[in-house]
Amino acid sequence: MLGREICFGGMRCALSMAIALLLASCTSPAALQPPPPLTSVATSPSPRAIVAEVDGEAISREEWQRTLALDRAMSALAGQPLPAPEESLQRLINERLALREARASGLSATPEQAVVRLQALLLRWKKDELALDAALAQHDLSRADVLDAIRRLLVVEAYLSRLGSEDDARRWMAERRQRAKVGLYVSFSVPPTPAVLMATSLKLPATPLVLAPQSEQATEAVSMPSPQPAYERTPDAPPAPSPTALPENPALDFTLPDLDGRPATLSQFLGRIVVLNFWASWCPSCRAEARDFGDFARQYRDRGVTVVGVNLREDAATVRAFAEANGMDYPLLLDADGAVGRMYEVVGIPTTIIVDAAGSVRGRHVGVLNAAQLADYVAPLLADFSSVERRIAPDFTLPREDGRRVSLRDYRGRQPVVLLFYRSAGCGSCQQQLRAMQAEYARFRARGAEVLAIAVQGVTQAGVVRELGKLEFPVLADEAHTVSEAFGVFNRLGDGLAAPAVFVIDAEGRITWSHIGKNANDYPAPSEILKYVS
Fold first, then answer.
1. Which residue from 297, 260, 291, 295 is spatially nearest to 276, judged by alpha carbons?
2. What CA–CA distance (Å, rounded) separates 382 from 513?
3. What percent of the chain has pLDDT over 70?
4. Could you read off the pLDDT of 463-475 as tens digits, one per residue?
5. Whether residues 248 and 365 fall in one domain
6. What is the arrangement of strands in the sheet containing 188-190, beginning at the earlier edge strand?
7. What Cα–Cα distance (Å) separates residue 491 from each residue in 330, 398, 480, 485?
8. Which run of H or E residues covers position 334?
9. I want to staple 490 with a disulfide (CB 3.0 to 4.6 A). Which of 127, 143, 302, 484 is the partner?
């Protein structure tokens, strides 16, 4: 038995092994698979009434509310912390999976057995039946609700005990979650505090929530209606993130392939605010928010914000087709085995993680987000980010025209750098810009600065550009456009190329000045750039 695990979201009891396994996915999320369309069953509840589906079987908002109320009533009775709403929903999902197989094997529990277990629990907690009735009444529950729940958990306990050891049972539950088709459609928001978001684990707080019984009031108590009632995709709205920097909560770095198989890392976007969105094309809630994420990404790209989509367990062709149909023209990475999802404890999709320019996790949201809600999340971070002098330039490593690799960090602590983004080898105005920079290159060197030219092209084309312009400064190939994207200049003009842009970076790695062109001929003169090089 797992002696220190909880049941009903908080009480310690002899059902510990069963409940531990029911709660396991709250900290070890497994693969989320596509649920059937919500409209596939004519008699199913309305989408707003559904909070989850398990292999096509809906979990209603009413059932979830009753479960959460019971979890909290029993937790209070046992003197244990109140569970968070998401914990109760995850336990309910796992209970469904376990009960299905337990009942198929012929297991059951009688009302008499449930009464005996309840009496044993009260004895352990040193509570009498008056205290039980008072705790239940506070949440508008009855003894029948408690006894029904205990009967289900007795069945789960009996089934899991057949599997062998605790580790065997945990593996069994993880396997079932891997195979199950589970979808979550309710939103959960976690405001950033040091106690909630840690470097190695994203934990959910036990947020107080009063539930009324089976009423419209109860529904609204859970759903937290949006301040924008005209937006009808979801009734949930995020809380305003704290503007306080949390350097003790670094976002965990990872490497994943993009749709063309090229590796990309989270750390390459350091210096920009990152909206990290975990999603899949089969997920109805992900489909509902897709266009809003595309619109938000385009609107905020030039303001230092990058949306990064992490797709769970789908192939590149499927993701590309969906992205093109929904205007998702931001970096999309493939989490083929769900490892990064597990790293970020993604227990339901869509899940969105907000990362500030310093690389710290600042917020977490499970459920649909629209563009206005995303703007609310990043607004306090943009306030910290508004002064360009305080921005840290995203690091990168790129090949130069002769194949040697150049990293921006190589110049940190040594000298300032001028990044010169041009458009392509065949761009006439770009050639003029590069030649003008070459003519003034000695003046940049006299101030101790290096010039790095960057374009969305391969190494061969970079060599052609350097030869045509007889350039002495390095020409780098950003063929995967990751660096251009990180600096917010890729495809800004809508033609698949980088906008002409200049970034001046001091020896400490901070962006001290920048200019992003509005058209192919919009670039500053070298004398203008020199004003900002010190």
1. 297
2. 17
3. 78
4. 999 999 999 999 9
5. yes
6. 188-190, 361-366, 351-355, 273-279, 305-312, 332-335
7. 10, 19, 12, 8
8. strand 332-335
9. 484
CB-based contact 433:422 (threshold 8 Å): yes
CB 286 within 8 A of CB 394: no
Tell which residue, 100, 336, 351, 370, has the closest CA to residue 233.
Answer: 370
Residue 405 three-state SS: strand
pLDDT of the residue at 355: 92
The set of residues, in sequence order, having a beta carbon less than 8 Å from that of 26 and lying 6+ positions away, is 86, 87, 90, 91, 204, 347
- Cβ-based neighbour number of residue 532 at 10 Å: 17
What CA dihedral angle connects 309, 313, 316 and 322, to 10 degrees?
A: -60
Environment class of 469 (CB within 10 Å of its CB; exposed 0-12, middle 13-18, buried 19+)? buried
Question: Whose CA is closest to 88, among 73, 100, 77, 101?
Answer: 73
Is the CB of residue 335 less than 8 Å from the CB of residue 279? Answer: no
Asked if residue 432 belongs to a domain, the reply is yes
277 residue type, one letter: N
| Rama region for 157: left / alpha / beta (φ>0; ψ in -120 to 50; rest) | alpha
What's the domain range around 319? 227-386
Q: What is the DSSP letter of 395?
A: P
Q: Is the same domain home to 424 and 358?
A: no
Q: How far apart are CA 142 and CA 152, in angstroms?
A: 16
Rounded CA separation 286/383 (Å): 28
Residue-wise pLDDT tens digits, 486-527: 888 888 777 778 889 999 998 988 888 888 888 888 888 999
Contact between 177 and 141 under an 8 Å Cβ cutoff? The reply is no
Q: For residue 192, is it within any domain?
A: no
Q: Which of 287, 298, 307 is nearest to 353 (CA)?
A: 307
With respect to residue 453, please indicate whether it lies within any of the assigned structural domains. Answer: yes
Q: Mark 16-47 as b/e (b = at least 16 C-beta within 10 Å).
A: bbbbbbbbbbbeebbbbbbbbebeeeeebeeb
Count of other CB atoms within 10 angstroms of residue 55? 14
Domains identified in the chain, total number: 3
pLDDT of 221 above 50: no
The model's pLDDT over 27-50, given as tens digits with 9 standing for 90+, comes to 333 333 333 333 333 333 444 588
Residue where a domain terminates, one of 159, 186, 213: 186
Q: Nearest to residue 154, comparing CAs of 115, 97, 104?
A: 115
Of 348, 365, 386, which closes a domain? 386
Distance CA 503, CA 482 (A): 16
- The tokens for 58 are 């809906």
β-bridge mates for residue 275, sequence order: 307, 354
